[in-house]
Design brief:
Layout lengths: L5 H16 L11 H7 L3 E5 L2 E6 L1 H8 E10 L3 H18 L4 E5 L4 E6 L7 H8 L5 E9 L6
Antiparallel strand pairs: 1-2, 3-5, 3-6, 4-5
Helix pairs in contact: 4-5
């Protein structure tokens, strides 16, 4: 949420949570789907005065999402990550052939977008990746609403 300092932002979301627990209907707008995901039961996508979709968080994710973002970092350093890059790619493709990846070894990061439909294979992939020395995994959902409108 733009325009609020961290303390005010937390207070705002605490109020929203309280109202939600009281089964109050709350209508708010946001440009940040992570806010909508955290606090909404239903989401509507509007653009240029047109309603594109209404549905649950899961429905919107499947309709407009591109997948989950997996960011890999090596605690030992970029040299170790560079040495592991081909092994990482092999393991990711073994579990999730449609995964899209790119690396920035200078920043000590490798990023993959994992398709929603392969969610059942993620835990096996994570267990396998954790076997690599120093590798750390960050995981989040990503959306690409611009492509749908």
């Amino acid at each position: 949420m733009l325009g609020l300092d961290p303390i005010s932002r937390k207070k705002f979301w605490d109020i929203i949570k309280e109202l939600k627990q009281e089964n109050k209907t709350i209508l708010f707008t946001t440009q940040f789907l992570n806010d909508a995901e955290d606090y909404a039961d239903r989401i509507a996508i509007l653009s240029r005065g047109k309603l594109y979709a209404v549905g649950s968080v899961e429905y919107i994710k499947k309709k407009f999402g591109v997948g989950y973002s997996m960011i890999l970092h090596n605690a030992i350093g970029p040299t170790e990550l560079q040495a592991q890059a081909s092994e990482i790619a092999s393991r990711v493709k073994n579990y999730i052939p449609k995964a899209l990846g790119h690396s920035d070894v200078a920043l000590n990061l490798i990023k993959y977008v994992l398709p929603f439909e392969d969610i059942g294979k993620f835990s096996l992939l994570f267990v396998d990746l954790e076997k690599l020395k120093g590798l750390q995994v960050c995981f989040c959902c990503c959306y690409n609403i611009k492509n749908c409108i």
